[in-house]
Amino acid sequence: MSNKRLIGSMPKIGIRPTIDGRRKGVRESLEEKTMNMAKAVAQFLSENLRYNNGDSVECVIADTCIGGVKEAAEAKEKFEKESVGLTITVTPCWCYGSETMDMNPRRPNAVWGFNGTERPGAVYLAAVLAAHNQKGIPAFGIYGRDVQDIEDHSIPADVQEKLLRFAKAGLTVAMLKDTSYLSMGSVSMGIAGSMVNEELFQDYLGMRNEYIDMSEFTRRIEEKIYDEQEFEKAYKWVKEKCVIGSDINSAENQRTEEQKEEDLQMNIKMTIITKDLMEGNPRLAELGYEEEAMGRNAIASGFQGQRQWTDHFPNGDFMEAILNSSFDWNGIRAPYIVATENDALNAITMLFGHLLTNTAQVFADVRTYWSPDAIKRVTGYEVNGQAENGVIHLLNSGAAALDGTGEQSLDGKPVMKPFWDITAEEVEKCLNATKWRPANTEYFRGGGFSSNFLTKGGMPVTIARVNLLKGLGPVLQLAEGYTVDLPEKVHEKLNDRTDPTWPTTWFVPNLTGDGAFRDVYTVMNNWGANHCAMSYGHIGADLLTLAAMLRIPVNMHNVSEENIFRPSAWNMFGTKDIEGADYRACATYGPLYS
Ligand SMILES: C[C@H](O)[C@@H](O)[C@@H](O)C(=O)CO
Ligand SMILES: [Mn+2]
């Protein structure tokens, strides 16, 4: 089963070959070259990009080259029928700007103008971008650095990089549209991120908001509105594969063995029910629950848990951790996106990371900055290497994917992979590295099990967060960096001071020596909320491109300037203070769907 694009087909990339419309010589001489450019881009993108269900990304090429408005309209009609979610215009020559451009303001578009001399593709690029800017329909310009000969049909490396960056972010925009966020419960412990903001989902992401009360879980459990066969399968798998860890609670606070067994069973049922709530389940219709069988078309959800639920029932950690992982009793599969504490803003950030990379995400509290001095004072140890400027402790009960153990590998290095590259052996390793520890009953009176693991060091990762400001709207922040290993004794000492039953990641951001990235402390000090989402890889540049498409300004990042790729209009808001220019551009264009 796929939990991915739920209703409607996967968005395709529309390729628009534009051409000089002059017949009797000019157009005829360019037809083949222009169409070949379109074919090369389509082939390149399909070969290099996949949707999060593992299928190759599909491209649709306009039936003819586009020499004027009639052919532009024909391409538009074709694209609408084919669920095109983003477009790339390609040309080796001069064409007529406003007559050939893509006028759809709600769909990301880019223009690749061939850098040649025989015909002026770059002149068209500049002209059509000026038209885009003048009309308020921002477009991304792609202009290769080195001149190519007209008979050279290759896509240069710098153009490839921009095509991929644009396509990944554009597909993310398109994948989000028309899906929903399912809020399970309400506001958790006064966390502002769980005050679901409909305007943000609707205007910026094109999504709708769905809500259930947590009593829906009780109803479905008590009335057995779930697939009992799946429960049996899941229970067997959990008993076989999930290692129960030690109980940290004092003797009088421990739950009995019978209670723990009940908690585990309830946790498994909560997991199955959350999937059903999000994406529906045809089995429920067979059981007589047609309405429940439909689900909520939810690409992401959040579980309030604390406190009304967890004061009485087992916590949501097992459900969140398993669903966010790339595997469960049904095998290796795409992760679901489930935020703990119903932090919808972190769910959005997780969706960005997941859709850009197709990998599982780690949801975490940005818990503590440990300076080298504080570590020395507490442990007697002087940190060095990557940790020499201190570390940030990422830790939260709940929603960290088990992929975050770092037990998948590539060339002997820890990685987090898209599900189709994960092996059965790696799944075993992730499970073996995780202990399911009886929940701390001072926090979670209703018991449950927390996933406990330590992320392997040496993974390039990016932490990010969408924050919401009254009067401004959403703002994105991100930090690229690495997971690090601390000496075992140091880890234990630091971890035991806090909640040792939860998953820990020691994170160090890449420093630039400047602004928010002056030092590790300043990164932590500038974080805008209690949570972040951690994604495998250095994906800051992809996040910046995506944010610009959605008109979400970025207040803090450590991506080098040459990798920043935003619509050409952004340059017109200033080229020196590009952070300020981003804010001005986003404010001018407003949210994508407003
Ligand atoms: C158990 C605690 O309530 C934690 O869940 C809490 O510290 C948080 O995670 C806050 O984001
Ligand atoms: Mn938290």
Mind explaining what this structure looks like?
Keywords: Carbohydrate metabolism, Cytoplasm, Fucose metabolism, Isomerase, Manganese, Metal-binding. Belongs to the L-fucose isomerase family. Its EC number is 5.3.1.25. There is one protein chain. The chain is α/β, with parallel strands linked by helices and 594 residues long. The protein folds into 2 domains: 12-176, Rossmann fold (3-Layer(aba) Sandwich), CATH 3.40.50; 180-589, L-fucose/L-arabinose isomerase, C-terminal (L-fucose Isomerase, Chain A, domain 3, Alpha-Beta Barrel), CATH 3.20.14. Helix content is 37%, strand content 19%. It contains 20 helices and 23 strands. A 6-stranded antiparallel β-barrel has the order 13-14-21-20-19-22. Strands 2-1-3-4-5 form a 5-stranded parallel beta sheet, with helices on both faces. A hairpin with a 2-residue loop joins strand 15 (408-410) and strand 16. Helix 5 crosses helix 13 (344-357), helix 8 (228-241) crosses helix 9 (257-279) and helix 9 (257-279) crosses helix 12 (317-324). The radius of gyration is 25 Å and the shape is globular. The model has no long low-confidence stretch (mean pLDDT 96). Bound molecules: L-Fuculose open form (CVU) and manganese (II) ion. L-Fuculose open form (CVU) is lined by residues 306, 341, 365, 396-397, 443, 530.
